[in-house]
Amino acid sequence: ISKGFRAARERLTGKGELSEDVVDAALKDVRLSLLEADVEFRTVKKFLRDVKQRALGEEVQLVAKGKDKKKVRVRPEDHFVQICHEALVDLMGPVDTSLARANKGITGIMMVGLQGSGKTTTTGKLARKLQREGHSVMLVAADVYRPAAIHQLQVLGERLGVPVFAAPGANPVDICRDATEEASIKGVDFVIYDTAGRLTVDDALMAELENIQSSVHPANIFLVIDAMIGQDAVQTAKAFDERLDLTGVILTKLDGDARGGAALSIKATTGKPIKFLGMGEGLDKLDEFRPEGLAGRILGMGDLVGLMNDFQEVVDEEKAAADAEKMLGGGFGMDDFLQQIKTIQSMGSMRDLMDKMPLGSLFGGDIPDEVLEQAADDNELVKIEAMINSMTKKERADPELFLDESARSSVPAHAKLTRRKKRPRKPKAPDQLGPEDFIESRVQRVARGCGH
Ligand code: GDP
Ligand code: MG
Fold this sequence. Notes:
GO terms for molecular function: 7S RNA binding; GTP binding; GTPase activity. Its EC number is 3.6.5.4. About 8% of the residues have low confidence. The chain is α/β, with parallel strands linked by helices. Helix 10 links the parallel strand 8 and strand 9. The strands form two sheets. The chain has an eight-stranded mixed β-sheet, with helices on both faces. The chain has a two-stranded antiparallel ribbon with strand order 1-2. The chain is globular. The protein is built from 20 helices and ten strands. 39% of the residues are buried. It has three domains: 90 residues, Four Helix Bundle (Hemerythrin (Met), subunit A); 193 residues, P-loop containing nucleotide triphosphate hydrolases (Rossmann fold, 3-Layer(aba) Sandwich), CATH 3.40.50; 144 residues, no CATH class. Magnesium ion (MG) binds next to helix 5.
C-alpha cells in the first residue's frame, strides 16, 4: 500500500463519519499517492473532486456481516477506500477490450507508438491471441528503417507459424498496401501492421503513419505506450491522437515497477479506451484491460477491493462470504487455498494476493519465504499447485501432517520442511538439501504418477 494512501486511511480510522474536514485531509494524502503513480495532475484534480462528492454525498452503507448476518456499519475508512476505487474504475471505464472487425474482407490492426514502446512484441502477442481464437493472421514489417526490426518480426512470425510480409528498402506505405492486397488474395482474417517509431514524436513519422492509415483503413489503430515513461505518456498519447484515428491504447511493461497511473491520464485526456496491458516479454503476457486491477495498483493497495468484487463474480456471493469467514476464523485449509489459487491466477500478481490473505496460520505462523518467493514468480504457482495436489486428503486438512511426512520421507532427513516458529531453522550447510528440494521431490513423484 502506498504511503499517501495508507496515510489517508489512517487519518479516517476511528472517525465517526466522513465529514468535509476529514475527507479533505484524507484527499491530500490520496493526491500524493496518485501523483506518485504518474497520474497527470489535471486528472488527479478531477478524481479528487469526484471522490469528495461521493464521500460526502453517500450514506455509509450497512452490510451484512458475521454468522447471524447482522447489519454492521462499514467503517468510514473502508468506505472511503471503496469510493476511491470506484471513482478510479469509473474514470478508466467503460471497459472495451474488443477488436473491431471490418465489415467485409480482412481486418487491419495498425500498431503505432514510440520506438521501444513494445509495438513489435505486442504485434506478436496479438497474433498469438488471434491464432488461438482460430483466426488466420499475417504480419507486416512496416518498420523499414532498422534492418533489425524486420528480422525481429520475422523471428516472431516463425515462432508463431504466421506469415510475415516484408519488402526491405520499399516505402512503408507501399508495403502496407501490397501486404493488404496479398492478404485479401490469401483470404487472411487479420493483418497486423508493425510500424516504425521514433524516440520522440516527429512530423515525418506522423505523416508516414497518416499515409498508411488512409491507404489501408485499418479497423483498429492501437497506440502502444510504455508504462515506464510515466507522466510523458500523456503528451505522447495526445500527439498521436491528434494526427491519427486511434481506436485504443495498449499499455506495456506493467510487469515492472510502473504503477500504471498513465492509463488513467491517457483515458482522461484522449477518451480512448485501454484495450490490453503488456505484462512481460513473453508472447503470452498480454492481459485484457480490467480497470479494477489497475485501480488497485494505482492506489498502491494491490487489488483487494477488486479481488473481493471478482470473487463475487466468479464465485457466488455466499461462497465468498463463507470463504472470508473461514479465513478469518482460521478454518481455511489447503483445499480452499488451492481452489482460490485457481480462481485467482488471472486476477493479478500472486505475491500481492498472498500478502493480502491471512495465510500464515496454514504454515504454523509465517508463510515460509520459499513459498513467498515462488508466489512472486507466477509460473511457480504451478509448483505450489502440484505440491498441494500431492498431499493426501488428510494432509490437506491438516498441513502439519505433510510437514511431518517430510521429516520421514525418503528425502534425506536434513531436507525437512520445518515449521518455522516451533523449530527455528538451522542455517543450511552448503551441501544440504533445502525444503524446496522436498517439495521438488513431491512434485516429481506426482509427475511420475505415484502421487496420491
Ligand atoms: P518497438 O520498438 O515498439 O517495436 O518495441 P519492441 O517490441 O521491440 O520492444 C522493446 C523492448 O521492450 C523489448 O526488449 C521487449 O522485449 C520489451 N517489452 C515489450 N513489451 C514488454 C512488456 O510488456 N514487459 C516487458 N518487461 N518488456 C516488454
Ligand atoms: Mg518494432
